[in-house]
Amino acid sequence: xxxxxxxEEQLIDLDAPPSGLAAALADAWTEARRHLMVIPRNPELxxxxxxxxxxxxxxxxxxxxxxxxxxxxxxxxxxxxxxxFAQTVVFGSSFTAVGIAEDLSRGLIDRxxxxxxxxxxxxxxxxxxxxxxxxxTFVVMLVVxxxxxxxxxGSLLEALGATALLLFFSYxxxxxxxxxxxxxxxxxxxxxxxxIWMFPLTFVSSAFIxxxxxxxxxxxxxxxNPFTVLTNAARALYNGNDPGNELWLAIAWATGITVVFATxxxxxxxxxxx
Amino acid sequence: MDAIVAxxxxxxxxxxxxxxxxxxxxxxxxxxxLLGPNGAGKTTAVKVLTTLLRPDAGxxxxxxxxxxxxxVRVRTRIGLTGQYAAVEERLTGRENLELVAxxxxxxxxxxxxxxxxxxxxxxxxxxxxxxxxxxxxxxxRRLDIAMSLIAKPSVLFLDEPTxxxxxxxxxxxxxxxxxxxxxxxxxxxxxxYLEEADALADSIxxxxxxxxxxxxxxxxxxxxxxxxxxxxSIADPGNVERAKAALAPxxxxxxxxxAGSTTTMSAPIxxxxxxxxxxxxxxxxxxxxxLDVEVRRPTLDDVFLTLTGRRAEDEExxx
Lengths: 274, 319
Known about the structure:
The complex is a heterodimer of chains A (274) and B (319). Chain A has 274 residues and is an all-alpha fold. Chain A contains 12 helices and no strands.
């Protein structure tokens, strides 16, 4: 059968559009680029999403700083900041759920799905652009933490490793959020659904306190909580201590979450979106 | 060749049967109006034909390619403009067009020139470098259609392209669609507006509850319900029965009061001259004081009422 493209010029190969890994990566980049272009054009959102973690740094440091003593740590900042960092990058993943729900409700996802592009591209592009956004927030927060007295006590390599680990975790959580966004579809609902479960996850952990102070059953949860594992590993690295197994465990968690939720999300995306 | 063929498409969502054995044939280069009230299955049909949804049963082809078996080759050939103007609000019109061009992997120079062509064609040159969130509803729709035309699709799907537009923008959209049809693009257009299908489509498929209940040109559909209709208004609601009895010999179907009226009634009649004087004479003889008698060609609304026993608008309100 001959192609029946009516107008004179053929712009694309109708029967063999670009496919394969290179095309998929190009499509993901196109999608990430769209979001990255939009971020600076929404300064309100950028300002408020940056203020929130900065406020957390200041509030926790000055409100709890005086009353919380952690054995083995001279100052609360050195203990607290890695926990705040971890909480912030993980909270930041909720942008993914909201963004996808927004694109769904505006019909953009339908438009993208009707194009001959890699089905993974939309979600990969979205999660990558959210990673960039979270990295930006992270840098701002790091500066503020430095101002209130936080220091890298270990090597620069360890600090970079801790930062990379945190961002990797954030990225893996973006895939959970992608799944939530695709499942819910309404922007308002996605906003709370993406956020609410992260409160117990981050607070019942070693982020702000030592888990020894928790009642037994809560401590049991806190100790296996992947967020505790992440915080401990990052904290050890920032403070120049040996993270031990928790580093590998944290990497394993992030890898596992990414693989499982990326698979689920991409499958859900390809199948149907309302 | 037929650009779109659907055979027995069925799709259920839980308890709801959105498509129930839908058959469609759209010859290449023609415009099909898919007409039905809210919830009739129009959007589901578009989603199946544009590879967004898999049908539970039945099959469909676009340009001869099976939508379920080979969705990617279908996607290179189609353009979709969904119910919402799917534009990125914070990108400019030009950036939105170039975005889609990038997705089609057009070379950089061609992305720019193609965007320019479409901006010009859809009268968006002046607004090209403004963010889409400053656009009016009509401009946003034009940008939306322009985005679906980037790769020069041979088949274009427009899902309720004028819903929510003011009357002027709506007319503008009509001329855009007419022009596309004139250039040989096959268009499947869904609408709840009866006059829209009448004005734009070469052929109309009326769908209700997921299946086609009638098909043909606007004139054929109008003929299908049995010719002209008479509408009679009388002064006194108490005389309605008397008036109905007087009109009965002329009518070819039930004589019914118009919705919301106690004194105006309509009935199908056999086409032909002399109906009006005969009706007036009969009503006078029966003592029903006539205010107004009118004979008119049926509208598509009448077609829907005749075919389904319900008014198209009834469902719009409840949906």
